[in-house]
């Protein structure tokens, strides 16, 4: 690769973040189950609402500080915070301390992320950014495929070992950043008032909320997005609870006596890994195949696929049926991916496009905060009832998208 941008800073990030992303997917999908077992499903559903909201604050502060003090200090602080929280998680004997550690890990990652992305943008020529980000995405997807399959064994049987391994990797990454990574903050940024970027970040976030409330079409778009994301986000929330509690141990290949036996934990790990593999293999061909579809059709069909595929999970416990359901709702995710920002790109006024894109990200944040309520409701509603609620969110989202484009075409 071109030595101009593929320097030591980028190499260190690629290796370090690739390793940690693998470890991340070995524990993250199973945390909802863990807190559900320790604290009860209703409590687990409520407490999972808070981390996404706190991550917004961490990201805003990290981005503001990265533009003033520099990228490297923010990356060091974010890495050290995550390492410390993993150590706390590993030595803890209380699920509430575990929850505090989990929140700390999320805040540390959110604090780190803007500085890390900014360092790539500082270093890489604009015409090569897409290629570099594609490389990072490929490495991250490998972790998303392998991590859940391995974590299904390690998280439940060797959790302390897994947590100490995460802490060790982050410690080595911290040392590597400290001695190898150099600062990339542009000189002009160092001369700015340190209070301005952070203040502006919070003002931008607040103005995004106000923008949604003022623009009726955009308000419908965001609410529709929240409803359509509700089924998608259950992969890391309600689905692990359902699969681990309701899907029995079974062979990977039916009717073969010596077939590899999978526990319910392993089955969920395979489903998440299959989801990641489908993304890697199908994102490009599916996007190319559907490039002539209208945005209206893509939004509606992706929402129905995601909701319908998730709904079907509750109807049969056979592993290959579950693989089929995973294929359906993953296709819904893939169909949605390329069209989410293109709509805002041509809908938003040119002078306010950045503000609209910032406000558009709120649907993801609000969706993450709303989605754990499915776990809370599962404390007194049967699984099929929960899957019906998930499907209803998808239907409401699809109807809102139809209304959105009806208003948009007549505006």
Automatic annotation (TrEMBL):
- One Pfam assignment: MFS_1
Q: Which CDD domains match?
A: MFS_MdtH_MDR_like
Which cellular compartments is it found in?
Cell membrane
Query: Which UniProt keywords are given for this protein, alphabetically ordered?
Result: Cell membrane, Membrane, Transmembrane, Transmembrane helix, Transport
Q: What is this protein called?
A: MFS transporter
DNA damage recorded as keyword: no
Domain Major facilitator superfamily (MFS) profile as annotated: residue spans: 1-409
Give the way it sits in the membrane: Multi-pass membrane protein
A single GO cellular-component term from the record reads: plasma membrane
Database matches in InterPro entries: MFS, MFS_dom, MFS_trans_sf, MFS_Transporters
Positions of transmembrane segments: 12-35, 41-61, 73-90, 96-112, 132-155, 161-181, 218-239, 267-286, 298-315, 380-402
Extract the PROSITE patterns matched here. Answer: MFS
GO MF term (any one):
transmembrane transporter activity
């Amino acid at each position: 690769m071109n030595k101009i941008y593929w320097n030591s800073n980028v190499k260190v990030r690629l290796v370090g973040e690739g390793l940690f992303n693998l470890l991340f997917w070995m524990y993250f999908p199973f945390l909802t189950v863990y807190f559900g077992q320790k604290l009860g499903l209703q409590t687990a559903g409520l407490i999972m609402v808070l981390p996404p909201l706190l991550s917004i604050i961490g990201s805003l502060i990290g981005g503001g500080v990265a533009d003033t003090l520099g990228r490297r200090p923010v990356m060091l602080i974010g890495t050290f915070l995550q390492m410390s929280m993993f150590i706390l998680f590993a030595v803890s004997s209380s699920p509430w301390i575990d929850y505090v550690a989990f929140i700390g890990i999320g805040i540390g990652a959110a604090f780190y992320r803007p500085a890390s992305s900014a360092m790539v943008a500082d270093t890489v020529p604009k015409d090569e950014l897409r290629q570099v980000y594609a490389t990072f995405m490929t490495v991250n997807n490998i972790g998303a495929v392998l991590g859940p399959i391995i974590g299904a064994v390690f998280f439940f049987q060797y959790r302390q070992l897994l947590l100490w391994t995460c802490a060790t990797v982050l410690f080595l990454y911290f040392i590597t950043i400290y001695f190898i990574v150099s600062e990339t903050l542009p000189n002009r940024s160092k001369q700015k008032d340190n209070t301005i970027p952070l203040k502006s970040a919070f003002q931008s976030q607040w103005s995004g909320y106000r923008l949604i409330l003022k623009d009726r079409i955009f308000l419908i778009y965001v609410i529709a997005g929240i409803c359509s994301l509700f089924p998608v986000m259950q992969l890391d929330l309600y689905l692990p609870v359902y699969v681990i509690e309701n899907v029995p141990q079974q062979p990977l290949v039916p009717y073969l006596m010596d077939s590899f036996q999978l526990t319910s934990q392993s089955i969920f790990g395979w489903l998440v890994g299959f989801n990641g593999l489908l993304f890697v293999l199908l994102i490009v061909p599916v996007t190319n195949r559907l490039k002539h579809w209208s945005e209206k059709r893509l939004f509606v069909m992706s929402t129905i696929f995601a909701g319908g595929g998730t709904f079907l999970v509750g109807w049969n416990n056979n592993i290959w049926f579950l693989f089929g359901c995973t294929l359906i709702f993953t296709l819904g995710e893939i169909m949605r991916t390329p069209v989410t920002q293109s709509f805002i790109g041509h809908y938003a006024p040119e002078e306010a496009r950045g503000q609209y894109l910032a406000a558009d990200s709120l649907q993801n944040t609000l969706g993450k905060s709303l989605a754990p309520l499915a776990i809370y409701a599962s404390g007194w509603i049967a699984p099929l009832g929960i899957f019906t609620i998930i499907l209803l969110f998808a239907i409401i989202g699809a109807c809102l998208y139809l209304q959105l484009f009806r208003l948009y075409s007549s505006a």
